[in-house]
């Protein structure tokens, strides 16, 4: 067992998608079916547990790509039914909150949750585990999706988030060494000093326009044959804009709710500039919890943690549990 109470954790990354510049649903579903048995066996061996030690089965029921979800849901149903175990379908994004809590004892409600992944961007107030108030969300692209799409436009490989971060770090190093400073001041969509609490725009986000703004600059630079030299600075400008929006929306949530504790979750939570920006914006009174890369990226430990909480309070999913591409966040007040 590791220091976070995780006994065994196996993660399979699907490199096959990189060649296509994004996740191919059909491949994702087939890879799930191909590797599920072996992954469970691997995790159980690491945990040194046998089938008789398992007390319940948690599985991601949504939201996401339905083919991949169905592979997991069917595997979980078959296993639970065969062993006579309780089954619990988990919401992927609620799982991300539990992922951070696995690593940080302080990451407990009440807190402001900022969930940033490839498919979702949510700002919420967690009053208790399982009791949430949605404050805001993206109206178009998710933050991670914007990172991936901008990276692709700049000719960087998939997944784009880590690549953008690296490019931005090169840009900062160049500026520190006396090179050109970040000259690309990109728009901050849905962020205005005129926003007031109660306006839907106060907490909501939008990243599609920002992505288009990057594309427009990239097109102009290509015309001047200067894109290659500007990729790092442009990536830095994009990342700064995303961080600015996310950090300010989170600060507003802290100010309005009086809840100083902030829990970050999802793949984009690995972005070090985002963590810095949040820490700066929240100030010394803020209490920020961010997951390590291992638990920020999609993993089964966070799903197990969410399932354990719900199973312990008596919840069960029926054998008719189905995968839902657009599953609603649970427990919203
Ligand atoms: O939560 P996650 O692993 O999968 C989904 O549920 O979508 O998040 C994946 C997303 C991708 O869009 C990826 O580009 C982004 O997280 N990501 C990052 C970083 N590392 C991963 N985005 C920005 N900076 C990073 N360092
Ligand atoms: Zn995720």
Give the helices and strands, then pairings.
Blueprint: H1 25-47, E1 57-62, H2 66-83, E2 87-91, H3 92-103, E3 111-116, E4 121-128, E5 131-137, H4 143-153, H5 160-176, H6 208-223, H7 227-257, E6 261-265, H8 272-282, E7 287-289, H9 293-296, H10 300-312
The structure holds 5'-O-[(R)-(carboxyoxy)(hydroxy)phosphoryl]adenosine and zinc ion (ZN).
Describe the structure.
- This protein is of the alpha/beta class.
- It has helices spanning 25-47, 66-83, 92-103, 143-153, 160-176, 208-223, 227-257, 272-282, 293-296, 300-312, and strands spanning 57-62, 87-91, 111-116, 121-128, 131-137, 261-265, 287-289.
- The protein has a 5-stranded mixed sheet, sandwiched between helices.
- Helix 2 (66-83) links the parallel strand 1 (57-62) and strand 2.
- The mean pLDDT is 96.
- The structure holds 5'-O-[(R)-(carboxyoxy)(hydroxy)phosphoryl]adenosine and zinc ion (ZN).
- Zinc ion binds at residues 92, 96, 117, 266-267, 298.
Portion of residues in beta strands equals 5-15%
Low-confidence stretches: none
Oligomer: single chain
Bound molecules: 5'-O-[(R)-(carboxyoxy)(hydroxy)phosphoryl]adenosine, zinc ion
Distance between the termini: 36 Å
Q: Tell me roughly what share of residues is in helical segments.
A: 40-55%
- Gross morphology is globular
Radius of gyration computed on alpha carbons: 21 Å
Which structural class do the helices and strands define?
A: alpha/beta
Question: Helix segment count?
Answer: 10
**Largest sheet strand order:** 5-4-3-6-7
Largest sheet: 5 strands, mixed
Estimate the mean pLDDT confidence. Answer: 96
Number of separate strands: 7
Topology order in helix (H) and strand (E) letters: HEHEHEEEHHHHEHEHH
